[in-house]
Amino acid sequence: RKEVEQDPGPFNVPEGATVAFNCTYSNSASQSFFWYRQDCRKEPKLLMSVYSSGNEDGRFTAQLNRASQYISLLIRDSKLSDSATYLCVVSLRSNDYKLSFGAGTTVTVRA
Amino acid sequence: NAGVMQNPRHLVRRRGQEARLRCSPMKGHSHVYWYRQLPEEGLKFMVYLQKENIIDESGMPKERFSAEFPKEGPSILRIQQVVRGDSAAYFCASSPGGGKESQYFGPGTRLTVL
Prior knowledge:
- By secondary structure, chain A is mainly β.
- Chain A has strands at 4-6, 11-14, 19-25, 30-38, 45-50, 55-57, 60-65, 70-75, 84-92, 100-101, 105-110.
- In chain A, strands 2, 4, 5, 9, 10 and 11 form a 6-stranded mixed β-sheet that branches. A 5-stranded antiparallel β-sheet of chain A has the order 1-3-8-7-6, with no helix packed on it.
- Chain B is an all-beta fold.
- Chain B has no helices and 11 strands.
- Chain B has strands at residues 5-7, 10-13, 19-24, 31-37, 43-50, 53-56, 65-68, 75-79, 88-95, 104-105, 109-113.
- The interface between A and B is medium-sized, with 20 and 30 residues.
């Protein structure tokens, strides 16, 4: 079983729409959670960390459900510039420098 | 403040040749990580280095792959006797400290083995 699994999509949404997707992780000892974005196989860029209480950064909201071992990302009022692949990333408490990446969820926002 | 630098950005090798990938961390960062991304897959951790020390190489293939981060100069990921399966994007990341410090990624080196 993969450490981190994501629906690859693609999610095709019109500008202004809301889009949400999840990822699941297999190791219950996972301690740190992040969403990165990757454009056209370029370098991953940190979008936001995910905290137990959930957190929001502008139009982006991340939630963590430890009991069910999934993380979600919601994007409100989608912009064309939000088109990217969103990578779910987790790490363990024991070696929290070792990031485990999902294969990504592709989002395409159309005009 | 320049970001993480990697070179070359694209590298083509024939089977059996050696590939050397270079990574210069961000200024002030002394921790370097290498990841590999195969087509249609997520990034996979390979190795974590500090200056002159390999901290964790649990993700490195046992043969043909090696990494170093000398006191002076960039970190080097070396692949000997490359095979087609080594074709991938290799990303380097750096952080100011270890542990949970945020990792900043370089643009990657795309290795193609013919």
